[in-house]
Specification:
With 141 residues, the protein is an all-alpha fold. The protein has one domain: Serine Threonine Protein Phosphatase 5, Tetratricopeptide repeat, CATH 1.25.40. Helices cover 76% and strands 0% of the residues. Helix 2 runs antiparallel to helix 3, helix 3 (74-91) packs antiparallel against helix 5 (101-110) and helix 5 (101-110) runs antiparallel to helix 6.
């Protein structure tokens, strides 16, 4: 009897390790990519940026099509979030920033145990709310 439980224990450990590795492959790239979301970039609109933005828009559309068929596809959600972040990096547009929230929310729902994803989502939401606030008037002294 002890011999039968040993292989099952090994199987369970291997399943847990494999699951953690899979989740890590999804979470780590997203967290690394978004870790500098609040740092400003010195990008200006150039023909190269416009072409790059259009390419990113096409990629995002492709991932959105996949998500219409498979709404909880983690790879498509991950890649859509990355693509929208790259679009935001090019334009610094509030609209591009807002579009990052939806795929991140779905990833958090799929992987609630991933604290890094939750923190990233909160960071992006905070930036969205700051972008929606009108600038404070300068006080005269």
């Amino acid at each position: 009897m002890a011999e039968k439980s040993k292989p099952k224990t090994i199987q369970r450990v291997l399943i847990i390790v494999a699951s953690a590795a899979f989740l890590g492959t999804l979470v780590v790239p997203i967290v690394e990519m978004f870790s500098n979301v609040s740092q400003p970039a010195n990008n200006t609109e150039t023909p190269d940026n416009t072409a790059a933005y259009e390419q990113l828009q096409q990629k995002a559309t492709g991932y959105e099509e996949v998500l219409k068929r498979e709404p909880n596809n983690p790879k498509a959600l991950n890649e859509l979030a990355k693509t929208r972040y790259q679009m935001y990096q090019l334009t610094k547009s509030d609209e591009d920033l807002k579009k990052m929230v939806d795929p991140l929310e779905k990833l958090v729902k799929l992987y609630p145990e991933q604290k890094e994803l939750k923190a990233l989502l909160e960071q992006v939401k905070m930036q969205v709310s700051q972008a929606n606030q009108p600038p404070k008037p300068e006080s005269k002294k």
